[in-house]
Structure to design on (404 residues):
């Protein structure tokens, strides 16, 4: 017999309005909200990196390797960040990642040869990536299980509101000079790092022996629902990275300036900022696997619609479908992982999920750019197929067997 899902809210929560649920969230959530907004507003470099490198004279093949090296650094970050967040506390890991990540932006700006560029992007991937497992684990530490979908939704509200404002500003800054993207990213990262250090709690910590990866990996491999989610997420995130690579070049190739790309991507953030929280409440009351599956499918289909684009209107339609999938799946995904992870292994579980993003980052942008130049139809159809397969992994009967 299938046990009740721990993400299903009790009656007292189910009867609360969205405003009541938001007001009931602990102070830590709002500190993270403010810090995330500042940080995401200044996340200028990554979304514009393809355009920056393209205008700097690098070939598509060399740009592809930049993303691979960045992701390799991110893989190292997940290994280190997952353990550090369980060992030395979430706050310390977040602050270390944010401040060192900001410094890495200055190194990246000053990299004037291709070998130095690869070293800089590796360091940037290594430092930035350590933040995410610690932040996700801290939310799970301080927020009761029945309020986690709302908490993750609120934080994503800040992420996407900051992203929307930052992308709009970043498009204009890129027109003035790319150096302002790197400087802005440095300032906002360090600012959030200082806020985190002084205003956030440590969160749960464990011993050096208990924070090792070996016992966590054994636990993950024995957790079928987590394994299936891992591979479904790995496929789904491939669609996310196309907007910063092949999607960006498509918009430029259609004859639009960089500011149009900034505004279209800003629209993604604004939609999420205004609509994701109420949409996440609908998902909170349903089986999380089904909600995530639908979201993953829509993300893949959304990117695939770029194959029909001959102007900005179809690009906007593609972004709308993709954004709907993102709003449906992402808040529920965060709460779902928190449900699956043992309390003392949350950092490493969240790091494993972060690993899917880094593997996707290593493969998807570069592969997408190469396919965009050589066989664009294969790229757009492939995105739809990845969305379909990732949704099927979340919905498949093998998932039902694992819950019996």
């Amino acid at each position: 017999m299938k046990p009740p899902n721990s993400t299903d809210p009790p009656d007292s929560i189910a009867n609360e309005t969205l405003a009541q649920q938001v007001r009931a969230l602990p102070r830590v959530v709002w500190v993270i909200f403010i810090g995330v907004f500042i940080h995401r507003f200044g996340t200028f470099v990554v979304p514009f990196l393809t355009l920056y490198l393209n205008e700097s004279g690098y070939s598509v093949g060399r740009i592809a390797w930049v993303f691979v090296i960045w992701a390799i650094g991110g893989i190292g970050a997940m290994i280190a960040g997952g353990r550090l967040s369980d060992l030395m506390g979430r706050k310390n890991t977040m602050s270390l990642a944010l401040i060192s990540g900001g410094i890495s932006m200055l190194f990246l700006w000053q990299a004037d040869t291709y070998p130095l560029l690869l070293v800089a992007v590796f360091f940037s991937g290594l430092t930035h990536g350590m933040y995410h497992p610690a932040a996700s684990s801290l939310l799970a530490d301080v927020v009761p299980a029945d309020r986690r979908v709302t908490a993750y939704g609120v934080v994503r509200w800040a992420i996407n509101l900051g992203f929307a404002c930052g992308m709009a500003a970043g498009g204009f800054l890129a027109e003035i000079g790319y150096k302002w993207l790197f400087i802005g990213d440095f300032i906002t990262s360090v600012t959030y790092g200082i806020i985190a250090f002084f205003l956030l709690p440590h969160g749960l910590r464990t011993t050096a022996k208990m924070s090792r990866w070996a016992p966590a990996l054994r636990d993950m491999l024995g957790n079928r629902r987590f394994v299936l989610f891992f591979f479904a997420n790995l496929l789904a995130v491939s669609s996310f990275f196309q907007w910063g690579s092949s999607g960006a070049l498509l918009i430029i190739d259609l004859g639009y300036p960089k500011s149009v790309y900034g505004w279209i991507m800003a629209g993604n953030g604004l939609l999420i900022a205004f609509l994701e929280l109420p949409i996440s409440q609908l998902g909170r009351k349903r089986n999380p696997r089904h909600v995530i599956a639908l979201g993953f499918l829509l993300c893949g289909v959304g990117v695939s619609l770029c194959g029909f684009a001959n102007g900005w209107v179809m690009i906007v339609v593609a972004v709308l479908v993709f954004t709907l999938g993102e709003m449906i799946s992402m808040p529920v995904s965060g709460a779902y992982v928190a449900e699956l992870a043992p309390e003392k292994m949350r950092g490493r579980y969240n790091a494993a999920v972060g690993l899917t993003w880094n593997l996707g980052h290593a493969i998807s942008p570069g592969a997408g750019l190469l396919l965009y130049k050589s066989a664009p139809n294969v790229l757009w159809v492939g995105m739809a197929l990845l969305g379909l397969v990732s949704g099927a992994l979340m919905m498949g009967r093998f998932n039902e067997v694992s819950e019996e």
